[in-house]
Amino acid sequence: MIGYFKQAIVPVMLLVLAGATGCSVQAGDRDNKSPQAEQQKDGTLSEAGLRLIPLTISSAGQSHVFTVELAGTVQEQARGLMFRKDLAPDKGMIFPLKETRMASFWMKNTVIPLDIIFIRTDGTIESIAANTTPYSLDPVESGEPVAAVLELAGGRAAELGIVPGDKVEWQD
């Protein structure tokens, strides 16, 4: 019951905090679009408000192009893809790390299975945790220090033949 309470209260608290920090609508403002809404419309920001960037994985002579959300801050990285109900095959999220280190992720509050791809400083894939289990609290860890982590829809890496040693490129 306490676990349920914690899961239920976090989204509510986020909504309360969002409302407390949001701006109020003044008379005549309804027709004006916020900069964030415009950036969502033109494709530079995701619905979650994260910057969208292109990312390419080179594998067996093929290039696989994705549009990924850039989780650049500690808060963005802590939230990750939690609570998302779907993830398109050409979408994902990249977590560039401030310094090269062992990385550990979990699937708490993550509704969909993910492929978690650990990336070395040279851009090569160190390892892939395929089809991770939704809601699992078990750690999903890199096998060595990495510079970034990429999350794709579960099973997508195998579907495309992406394997350790393949090259990942993006600009943040």
Report on the architecture of this protein:
The chain is α+β, with helices and mostly antiparallel strands and 172 residues long. Helices cover 22% and strands 32% of the residues. It is built from 4 helices and 9 strands. It has helices spanning 2-21, 35-41, 74-79, 156-160; strands spanning 52-59, 62-70, 91-101, 104-105, 114-119, 125-129, 140-141, 146-153, 167-170. A 7-stranded mixed beta sheet has the order 6-5-8-3-2-1-9. Strands 4-7 form a two-stranded antiparallel ribbon. Helix 3 links the parallel strand 2 and strand 3 (91-101). Residues 1-36 have low confidence and may be disordered.
Characterize the biggest β-sheet. Answer: 7 strands, mixed
| Portion in helices | 10-25%
This entry's quaternary arrangement is single chain
The spatial strand order of the largest sheet comes to 6-5-8-3-2-1-9
- Portion of residues in beta strands equals 25-35%
Global mean pLDDT: 82
Straight-line N-to-C gap: 41 Å
Concise synopsis of the structure shown:
This protein has four helices and nine strands. With 172 residues, it is an alpha+beta fold. Strand 5 (114-119) and strand 6 (125-129) form a beta hairpin.
Write a concise keyword list for the protein shown above.
two-stranded antiparallel ribbon; disordered N terminus; 9 strands; alpha+beta; globular; 22% helix; 172 residues; 7-stranded mixed β-sheet
Annotate the secondary structure layout.
Layout: H1 2-21, H2 35-41, E1 52-59, E2 62-70, H3 74-79, E3 91-101, E4 104-105, E5 114-119, E6 125-129, E7 140-141, E8 146-153, H4 156-160, E9 167-170
Parallel strand pairs: 2-3
Antiparallel strand pairs: 1-2, 1-9, 3-8, 4-7, 5-6, 5-8
